Amino acid sequence: MISGDNLRNKMKMLDIELNSHQIDQFSQYYDLLCEKNKVMNLTSITQPEEVIDKHFIDSLSLVRAFKPESGMRVIDVGTGAGFPGIPLKIVFPDLKITLLDSLAKRVGFLNEVIEALELTDIEAVHSRAEDAAHNDLYRQQYDLCVSRAVASLPVLLEYCLPFVKTGGCFVAYKAGDAEQETEQAKRALGMLGGALGEHDSISFMLPDTEYARTLLKIHKIKDTPKRYPRKAGMPSKKPL
């Protein structure tokens, strides 16, 4: 069971004020996560305080780089157990969110969470990013793409930028110092229609942890060429 007071106080560090309904939703989400984790591998982090710090607070640390606005369309690529998409939906209920994952069992869990928490304007989609990004329902339809998926930045850019409309943003959650990755991604940025400004890399320590997080705020400045992303498996095998 998570501590509502602890969660509320941690969120205040991000200038987020939770109401009692939102705290109940986070608590229920935690319970569902732990219960399902007994029969399928969703996360190695299950202790209440760790889940608060390394999943819930980490997910909401997005606000350090990007302030979501009511009605925005957001896609979470490689969402896994629903991070950061579901915490974002709980705190910003007016967002319209797509949770994208390639594993059917995880999508089934996400649908259970959506139903149990009575969330609206949110869908869980079973697809690889390389396939969904060529579907007109999703391609260049989003104001914001987020991803905590573990992949190098050139690979993530090919997965994620095709979903973002011109003028929108992709925020990549990276561990530690991402300077080397951003240097390696310059070619991919140019090819895929993205740009990363001088002040668009935001690094910090998660509260009460020794975990360093960097958020990369990538701007979509032009349409992604239709040939990207390449067919399934190619972005990771041969990064741009």
What is the count of DSSP helices, taking H or I runs of 4+ residues? 10
Largest sheet: 8 strands, mixed
Say how many strands there are: 8
Question: How would you spell out the order of helices and strands?
Answer: HHHEHEHEHEHEHHEEEH
What portion of residues is helical?
25-40%
**Principal-axis shape:** globular
The average pLDDT is 95
Report strand %.
15-25%
Gyration radius from CA atoms, angstroms: 17 Å
Distance N terminus to C terminus? 44 Å
- Structural class estimated from helices and strands: alpha/beta
The stretches of 5 or more residues where confidence is low (pLDDT under 50) are none
Structural write-up:
By secondary structure, the protein is α/β, with parallel strands linked by helices. It has 10 helices and 8 strands. Helix 7 (153-160) links the parallel strand 4 (142-147) and strand 5. The longest helix has 18 residues, at 20-37. The model has no long low-confidence stretch (mean pLDDT 95).
